[in-house]
Design a protein that fits this description.
Helix content: 25-40%
Strand content: 15-25%
Order of helices and strands: EEEHEEHEHHHEHEEEHH
Largest sheet: 6 strands, mixed
Shape: globular
CATH architecture: 3-Layer(aba) Sandwich
Radius of gyration: 18 Å
Number of helices: 8
Structural class: alpha/beta
Distance between the termini: 29 Å
CATH topology: Rossmann fold
Number of domains: 1
CATH class: Alpha Beta
Strand order of the largest sheet: 6-7-8-3-9-10
Number of strands: 10
Length: 254
């Protein structure tokens, strides 16, 4: 990988929703490549992803990518650094696929020939170039997810945040989307949340497990499998066993 590729540092980040703690003193490094984010509902996954995408204001702690720190003053610069695909996203249903991606590119500051070239490239990357003139409303679920990913990726962001991108997809569609994510991760920090542990088995370079707003585990797939060695016969896979071992522990078991 090129030396200019940069990690994202999350340092002592906390977030409150009124009296409820959404995120508690979270610290982790997101390297170039794919980091999988696991945890039950309410664990803090979406809060962390929204903070990274500036969809929530940073209340306490630091997030930085190289010399650029997440602050209200430079929110525009941060947003151009990040590509964000929330779990629920809207498309311009009566517009073509190309028009949807063009609008996303324009919103990220692209124009002229650079916009056209970026749109062509990303539609090819997500294997939708032959559907570019179709209306978004005609797409299947898997194609909609790929179009959403194209909109998030069109400005070639060095940070890509994907919240449950495989929800509702069949196994073939999930495999296609995983290939696209792996390709994107060659040049970007990619954070992907999922409830399907096995979605990460072939794509993740690092796994983060959260519970009750806290980061409970950060490590490799092999390290997570090792944690579940004694529980493997109780779960569908060693990865699932490792995940449940982390969730059952009162603190990071490493």
């Amino acid at each position: 990988m090129a030396a200019c590729l940069t990690d994202v540092e999350v340092l002592a980040v906390s977030h409150q929703y009124g009296k409820r703690q959404g995120l508690a003193d979270a610290s982790l490094t997101l390297p170039v490549g794919v980091t999988g984010l696991l945890g039950p509902n309410g664990a803090g996954k979406t809060t962390l992803m929204k903070l990274l995408a500036t969809a929530l204001p940073l209340q306490r702690g630091t997030i930085r990518h190289g010399e650029l720190a997440w602050t209200r003053k430079n929110a525009v610069d941060v947003r151009r650094l990040v590509g964000y695909l929330p779990q629920r996203f809207e498309l311009m249903e009566w517009s073509t696929l190309r028009r949807n991606v063009e609008y996303a590119a324009w919103a990220q500051g692209l124009s002229g020939p650079s916009l056209d070239g970026a749109v062509d490239d990303v539609l090819a990357t997500v294997d939708l170039a032959d559907r570019a003139s179709d209306r978004a409303r005609a797409l299947s679920g898997g194609m909609r997810q790929r179009l959403g990913l194209a909109c998030a990726m069109v400005h070639r962001p060095p940070v890509l945040v994907l919240d449950e991108p495989t929800v509702g997809l069949d196994p073939v569609q999930r495999q296609q989307l995983r290939r696209t994510i792996v390709q994107a991760s060659e040049q970007s920090v990619v954070l992907i949340s999922t409830h399907l542990v096995e979605d990460l088995a072939t794509v993740a370079d690092q796994v983060v497990v959260m519970r009750e707003g806290e980061v409970r585990f950060t490590g490799s797939l092999d390290e997570l499998r090792d944690l579940g060695a004694t529980l493997a016969d109780q779960h569908a896979s060693p990865l699932e066993a490792g995940y449940h071992a982390v969730q059952a522990a009162g603190q990071d078991p490493r």
